[in-house]
Amino acid sequence: MGDQCVAYSISMNEIEPQFDGQWQGITTASDGACYFGSSTHSNRRGAGFFRFDPELRNLSILADDITAVCGKDSPIPQGKIHSPIVEASGHLYLSTHLGAYWEGAPEEYPGAHILGYDIENGTFRDFGIPIERYTIYSAIGVDPDRGKLFAFVVPWAEEDTAHNGCHLVRVDIPSGKIEDLGRVGPRGRIACFWFFVDHHGDCWFTLWRAAGAFPQGGHGNLYRLPVGAQKVTVYENILPDCHLLYPDGRPRTDVEDTRADRAWTWAAPLPGRDRCVFLMGMFAGEDERLWTFTPGDGSPTSANFECAGLVGPTFLATALGGDRVYFIQRGNVRAARGWVAEFERDRDPSRIDWVDAYHREDLHLKSISLSSRDHGTVTDHGPIVDQQGRTPRHIDSLAADDRGRVYMVGGWHLLPGEAGTQQIQWATTREFVEVPRAERFAFVDTAASTA
After folding, report:
1. d(Cα 264, Cα 67) in Å, to the nearest integer?
2. Are strands 378-386 and 5-11 parallel, antiparallel or unpaired?
3. 332 in a domain, yes or no?
4. What pLDDT is stored for residue 250 in this prediction?
5. Residue pair 441/54 in contact by the 8 Å Cβ criterion
6. d(CA 371, CA 271)
7. Which residue stretches of the chain have pLDDT < 50?
């Protein structure tokens, strides 16, 4: 197996047995700590919000249930912190998302909230619900120079998806005023995971097609809200075509549906915010390269995109830390292609066919360098294992800092005698059953984790 990537993990289910997943909703902050959520699909409680101090290895509960932070009782909890968490002027900004997907729940859901958190004072600010009953799925971004915040607001109830669509909103942070900039795209539900807010104050994004699940999204389109503008500009079919890392890196133009999926599955601004890095991984073109995008004068062409290296299959579990992009991937890159750990996380771990890299998780922490010294070099930090020998079943939440410290939240294998996550069977009985995994937060110091 080679060297291992040794993580220090903490049980989230000892805090709340119903924590059952986390997607996005994690960041490293200017105070050196990691801030993150742990989410539910429960009808009883919402997501928690936490702070981890890597120096003391101390976990603090900042909000036991984020629903209570949102200021009023709700028949449907704020089940998830699914947005990115972004920082400006000593404050973190995030949004909530419903985790209740059963029939009737979206109609009772009051709507997602945009929240701020003061790092120094430890206090929350509730900006409220941008659009009643709509959720935020899931991009938010901040322009620190102009005090503006952006959020992608999405209908979930059947009536709303039938008669309306997704909206882009802009928040004036000092006053708290929320400005609805209108619908983006046609009617229906679409997803947008990441914004890039550049140094001019322009907000750039793509829409997720997800292998045809949201046909309005993808298609290689890039969207831009210019600073101060009221209307979004669309640059059609501008994103690069998709290539595989193996066997020969040829264009995938022979797979038209895959080409139509092209969108960002991850994006992050580089220092100075004059450009960003992004990926078009699983369910968004299946591209296996890392890209940079430089807006320039704001009228982009294909020349504004540059390949920064080959990484293989990737999805949400990606993070920028210093001059490296970290990502979670199976050790065998070919085995990772088309394989989604989240879809396999509740399979019986004792199955005999889980004995090789093609039939078990084999999740590694990897990174690619952006440094001029070794630009494009991929490092495999090894298969992830915690201090007691557990290995992860799936991870969809990742953050990193410029000191090589990497943080993750996800489902992990159980040790003998350990209790599993209590997950609601929302599609059937809505009872809670124990599943064969546990929700854990984990921390890796890549400078000291090799065993």
Report:
1. 29
2. parallel
3. yes
4. 52
5. no
6. 13
7. 1-2, 253-254, 450-451
- Using a 10 angstrom Cβ sphere, with 0-12 exposed, 13-18 middle and 19 or more buried, the burial of residue 331 is middle
Q: 417: which residues sit within 8 A by CB, 6+ positions away?
A: none
Strand 305-310 and strand 318-321: pairing? unpaired
* Per-position DSSP letters for 162-197, written without gaps between them: HH--EEEEEEETTT--EEEEEEESSSS--BB--EEE
With respect to residue 169, please indicate whether it lies within any of the assigned structural domains: no
Cα–Cα distance between 77 and 41 in angstroms, integer?
A: 9
* Residue partners of 366: CB distance under 8 A and separation at least 6: 311, 326, 327, 328, 329, 378, 379, 380, 381
Say how far apart CA 274 and CA 197 lie, in whole Å: 9
Report residue 43 as tokens: 């009808």
Adjacent-strand bridge partners of 405: 445
Per residue in 390-405, is it b (16+ CB within 10 Å) or e — as a string?
bbbbbbbbbbbbeebb
Its domain, for residue 3, covers 1-23+317-451
Residue 56: count of CB within 10 angstroms of its CB: 9
- Token pair in block for residue 68: 């209570």
* Predicted pLDDT of residue 258: 79
| Residues whose CB is less than 8 angstroms from the CB of residue 272 and which lie 6 or more positions away in sequence, other chains included | 199
What pLDDT is recorded for position 245? 73
Question: Which residues does 279 contact at the CB level (< 8 Å), separation at least 6?
Answer: 264, 265, 266, 267, 287, 289, 290, 291, 311, 314, 318
Number of separate domains in the chain: 1
What was the pLDDT predicted at 353? Answer: 61
How large is the C-alpha radius of gyration of the chain?
21
Query: What torsion, rounded to 10 degrees, do the Cα atoms 336, 342, 344, 350 define?
Result: 100
Q: Which pLDDT score is estimated for 1?
A: 39
pLDDT value at residue 338: 84
13-67 residue pLDDT tens: 999 999 999 999 999 999 999 999 999 999 999 999 999 999 999 999 999 999 9
Distances from the Cα of 4 to the Cα of 1, 21, 57, 260, 363, angstroms: 8, 24, 21, 38, 11
CA angle 198, 203, 208 (to 5 degrees): 120
Q: Which of 89, 88, 30, 94 is nearest to 62 (CA)?
A: 94
CB atoms within 10 A of CB 211: 16
Other residues' Cβ atoms within 10 Å of the Cβ of residue 2 = 9
292 belongs to a structural domain? no
234 part of a folded domain: no
In this predicted structure, what is the pLDDT of residue 247? 56
